[in-house]
ABC transporter domain-containing protein
Amino acid sequence: MLLNVRNLTVKYGSFIAVNSLSFSVNSEVYCLLGPNGAGKSSTLKAIMNMVPFEGEIEILGISNKDKIVKNYVGYVPEQPALYEYMTPAEIISFVSSLRGIKDLNRINALIRAFSLDMFMNTPIASLSMGNKQKVSILLSLIHEPKLLILDEPFNALDVLSVKVLKELIQNHIKNGGGVLFSTHIMEVAEKICTRIGIMNRGIMVMETSSDNIREAGRSLEDVFLSVTGLDEEIKDILKGLE
Ligand SMILES: Nc1ncnc2c1ncn2[C@@H]1O[C@H](COP(=O)(O)OP(=O)(O)OP(=O)(O)O)[C@@H](O)[C@H]1O
């Protein structure tokens, strides 16, 4: 098992953002869906040991509180957290040396795939949101982690980069890795995920697979709206707009 989450609870003061959540990720693409505020980012931050949590989280069988797991995980936060005064070339070289990576051929291929070559010497502060996101994705891949934790990774990406990222995710799985990501984009989830966890108000309300949804002849959007109870809300809102 690449990731095992058992009875995860995340609290901010007395507010429970994630409530006794359990799920696991193998060599597969696991997608977390949920309305705004459902607790997706808090779950991913707890997995990265960035927020206090209760419960148990293991990465490749090792507690996520053990520093060694950082070697096995790549993380893309919801908002790129980069040194704005550095250029992509500088930050990539900085992170590569921290990680002890000398062969940059793979990274250079990724830079080209994401069309970042012409921005390598531009300060990050001057980059578009999409290009910052691409740098953030590149940094998460430098040490060839087994598990990728991606918080809304498709945000701000153009069509070509979405395609590149989908391909990277598929290749990662073919090589025995695992991917856990959150998204609001149903089409992406439907196409590339093997398993889907739908969260609402901190609770996992449904775990299913794209195959199950297809076999049931339903769209992921319908399933999502119905299990989160948003379908009734939408009917009311649309009525109000008539
Ligand atoms: N640092 C914090 N302090 C207090 N409350 C927080 C904090 N971070 C998140 N929350 C609250 O916890 C809940 C879950 O937030 P979280 O960001 O995990 O949701 P999400 O599913 O990722 O939402 P979105 O889709 O909008 O990104 C929300 O109600 C949010 O306001």
Residues 3-72+145-241 form a domain with the Rossmann fold fold (CATH 3.40.50.300). The two ends are 50 Å apart (CA to CA).
